[in-house]
Amino acid sequence: MEGQRILSVSGLTVAFGSTTVVHDLSFDIASGGTLAIVGGSGSGKSVTSLAIMGLLQEGVGRASGSIRLGDQELLTLNEAAMRRVRGGKISMIFQEPMTSLNPVQRIGDQIGEAIRIHRGLRGAALRKAVLEMLRKVRIPDPEQRIDNYPHMFSGGMRQRVMIAMALACDPVLIIADEPTTALDVTVQAQTLQLLKDLQRDTGTALLLITHDMGVVAEVADHVLVMRRGREIERGTVHEVFSNPRDGYTRTLIEAAPSLVGKWRGRPAAGQAVDVVPLSFRGEAAVLEVRDLSVRFPSYGGLLGRLKGEVRAVDHVSFAIGQGETLGLVGESGSGKSTIGKAIINLVPGHSGGVTVAGREVDYGNPASLGALRRDVQMIFQDPFGSLDSRQTIGSAIIEPMRVHGLASGKAAVSRMEMLLERVGLEPSRAGSLPHEFSGGQRQRICIARALAMSPKLIIADEAVSALDVAVKAQILDLMVDLQKEFGVSYLFISHDMAAIERICDRIAVMYFGEIVEIGDRDDVIGRPGHDYTQRLLAAIPITHPDQRGLRPPPANNSVPPRSPLRPVDYQSPPTRWDMMAAGHFIRRAG
Amino acid sequence: MSGIISESPTSAHPRNGMRSFLSRLNFSTQAGLAVLLLLVLAAIFAPQLATHAPSQQSLINQLAPPGGKYLLGADQFGRDIWSRLLYGARYSLIIGFSAITIALVLGSFIGMVAGYRGGAIDIVLMQMMDVILAFPSLILGLALVALMGATVTNIVIAIAFTATPAFARIARAAVMAQRDREYVQACHAMGFSGARVLFRHILPAILPEIMVMASLWMATAVRTEASLAFIGLGLAPPTPTWGGMVREGFENILSSFHLALFPSMAILLLVLAFNLIGDGLRDAIDPRMKDVS
Amino acid sequence: MVSFLAKRLGFAVITLFCVLTLVFLLVRILPGDPALVILGDQASPESLMALRQRLGLDQPLPVQYARFLMQSVQGDLGRSMISGRPVMDEILTVLPYTLELTMAALLLGALLGVPAGVWAAVKRGRTPDYILRFLSLVGLSLPAFVAAIVLLMVFAIQLRWFPVISAGGANTLAERLRQMALPTLALALIMMAYITRVTRSAMLEVLSQDFIRTARAKGASPSRVIWNHALGNCLIPITTVVGLYLGILIGNSVLTEIVFSRPGLGKLILSALTQRDYTLLQGMIVIYTLMVVVVNLLTDLTYGFLDPRVKYK
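Above: the input entities. Below: the structure tokens describing the complete assembly.
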């Protein structure tokens, strides 16, 4: 299946000023083959791809060594000759489909530009070629979409446009830099499948840059693991996955979601129930949420009349027991984060009942709200953004205690120092500012700040999603340890199935503002009942190349996405639920 | 689902401390500060530096050329231009500083409240600001001074009035950019009061932007004051104002152009100093522009 | 689109209404009696009374206000207290001179400023960038009357290339252009400084964005990347700034017209000020503001043509 050598890199070294970011890197790619370069942030993997494209910032980045495309040495090529290579022989797909397209040009013109530059087509022939590309990447209604602007496309569709652009001139090599990282997991699976199909049809070589071992297991033939600018391991995909030699590689492999083995088959037919009881583990519920809805008014028309409501969250009910962790999983826009914010009153327009530690929260009553803010704390996704960059970390941990009158003076300082120690930081660093800490350390600071209030519940909103895989695992372990010590409960909101699976006792699956399935972790992951849960789980990349083909290809979503916009007086149809097992409920369609 | 956060601490970040702050400033700001300092000193020590009383007339020395007894020459009444320039600096600086201080405090407060509270308060406050912005600022200043009378207080009020909306807008935009940041949400989640969040946490974050604006608007204020005086709406003669000196010099432009030239250059120098400071500060606080300066 | 237009028009109408109210109040709170100003200290009480009656000043304030609003909406800004001619006629006589001057200055400023800004951004951090940045900073520090006086001294008095006074009397187009050249240049230099700066910073912002990298990865040439991909995305901030600084340009035109003794709104407002012709002053402020409001409206409309993402909501 593999043909002749397309690209060979040898002794590649890239430096920015006096800092060397890629050291003596060598690899080959054969036609039709797929090489994955894997590494965390700062590993030099993206810089390598830019060096191959000759896109290092002029006068700032310097590449030395050798990059040969067929018989052509790219590093010594002048700019004009390099331009004929770019987009013609080597093309590139970038991570961020939202920002990688020119917002003021029609997508047809943007795809057409590459064809015009390298194939010299004009006019009707050009349009025909662009339409053909759009069909190839399976964009529906190409005749109409060709004249649309990027903002009219979803993230997944934009990435298809990028792929069309990359394939437009029959390149011998495509470099895909984290092509699916910014996409939702179901879209990610479809995009990977498309990329694989197109590569098979055209015989193009693919250089895949990623941090996600799941994606590697799915598509790569060869793997090269990088860390801090150096190669630390390489081999065929089977060698690397079956017998990783380096500890870092093992961490990367372990960090990928390992759900395939957990699937135990479809559940037996459920038993219809009218009302889902609020179930939880333990003796008392720390949090009860009943019929929570969040609606944003939507205005439109000539005079800005109320057109309808966006139901970001629609009649959601669940409970969390003491010391229990409930995972709230769903894709972007599913309303999962809105639920967390609604509970602590950070979004307007929420209705329904919330009970914390047995007390019904009265959102209009300052005293009740004050009690809520002591009992429930939140940890956010971006540990840098959620700390005030001008406040020392010690002061950040003490401030909430002082504001709520929980502790002051020496008592507050000693509690702050105790907490820093408990989350694994030196108490002597209390006087430092947030920027002096790494991302993982900052998240530890945020956890310490949350614990300062002795909360009963911590809402963690994508709390580990922005962290490197190895750090992610440490933070999750820390959260589990602290839960045992402080007896706190977690509402763990994430799109990351691996993290959810690792930390949660029970899981609720969100889809378009509604919970479609809720139950014990092993039930939801092992015997998913709802279509969407099954789709979500099927889309998660495999963890070993041996599993290729073992799982059903991700089904295309047959149900078109629903608009969450509803007329003002819209009444949701009565929901029907099936009980699959004790505490495991799925929502019936209809 | 943003990118992965780097595991190494970000080092290039402002640390507190005046000295390290000054040493980090770029050339543009340092040059502007130096010129400004020079002009402020000249204004303070005007009595010591002046060679003549600013309003002392001398019939035999009318339109004396620069050099000799009159360092920069004398005007049509035989008054020493150098001495008048020194005293004139006082009016430009005092009027500019007072007007911009008022506009900064008032405008920032309006903008912060509007941006933080949103809703109807925002709409009403900003519509008021937009009405003021709808006037060409020089025309509005000119009308206000003409109607109220040309005194220091009235000129300060007129300039402050035209500058306030600019501060309201920048403060509002800055607050709105901060409002949805996670650290502000974290403050709300911990139950901090609105005033605490706004003044303890958001204000320090947006202060650099407001200070840049203040510096750039100081330049505008000085220019506006000079323009009003040039039109004839400055402090009444014989008060030495730079704009007024250009106005008087302009009447004799065909014979003695130095009369208009020196005060013109003084105005340009002061305005440029404030613009250099503001421009340099903006580059210093804007991380995107860091590698440029 | 239609609802966006309606909304913007609504805002413009509210703004104009507030402006009219503000102008009315401003002129009414001023110290001194207009009748006394017009007729002088020696006037008899009877003639003063008669004049007040003629000007409607004897009516209660709300009545005066209502009448002022009604007349303004119909385009009647009253009569000049000095010449007795309708204010609208006085303004319309000289308006073309000011419009011609400001439009020429705007055009010239944009034609010079946009390429200069693009060049500075492309040469970022190198000598041309530093020189252009400094020059543009000097340009926007320059009070318009200083710019005008310096041009006058050099090109009209020393070199004698252009007339010192640009007032009327031009029969040929060449003569007319010669008269316009210096005042236009004085305004254009300042406008150019603003446009250079905003173009440079918008360009730098856009050049650092992902889609520029995409364009380069396609093999597009540097000039194509800059003019085709980057500049199109800079047009919105440039338009915003041009719209914003048109108010400054209009204010500056007053100063330039005074320096060059050129007919126009500037000279008219100056005579209104010195002669304390309050109706004329009031009418002129309304017209000036109307110009700014119309420009803002046009700027908003332009966004729709420049950026497909602006959905006119």
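Note for the figure: The interface with chain A takes residues 2-3, 6-7, 209-211, 213-221, 229, 232-233, 306-309, 313 of chain C (CB under 8 Å).
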